[in-house]
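Translate sequence into structure tokens.
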Amino acid sequence: MSARTSLEEWVPKTRLGRLVKEGHITSLEEIFQQAVPIREPEIIDMLLPNLREEVVDINLVQKQTDAGEISRFKVTVVVGNENGYVGIGEGKRSEIGPAIRDAIRDAKLNIVPVRLGCGSWECGCGTPHSLPFKVTGKTGSVEVTLIPAPRGTGLVVANTIKVVLSLAGVKDIRSFTRGHTKTTANFVKAAYEALRNTYSFITPYDTV
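Result follows.
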């Protein structure tokens, strides 16, 4: 079944879902401006049809129960449209396939807008190739600080978080990290939180 067919057969369970399917809401910007929670991944499928998905971490986790030891796969997935939207999600299942599908669904529900810009004093080109200012995100012991870089610099960051930045649409950036960065899931989440924080500040442009 194709994605288009599944969306045609989709029966929304929330008011937001009905508004999106009926065409009353045509962009994610409208949803985020109203601060309405997204509870159906099909909303993202309709409004961001060009979304890309990347699996960034797969771990085998074990849980001790009365019946014995249960092993499951824990998968972390990042999604993004490479133009200002990114999400991260996790899924746990006894098989990798279903775990990945759960993680993709979770990532779509965690989509956030990323403010792109040109915040490097060395550049000033005015195009949205980097971030407008320095931001920091933290998850667990891992802290990631993203620093705007001039055009042409590229992603001068650890390979682990390059996926998050590229799917968000960031082309030039530098980073500074602290903590146990070998924990891939927390490292990726910290970068996601940093990008999420680009909308935690009010700039002069927001007051116009």
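Note: The radius of gyration is 18 Å.
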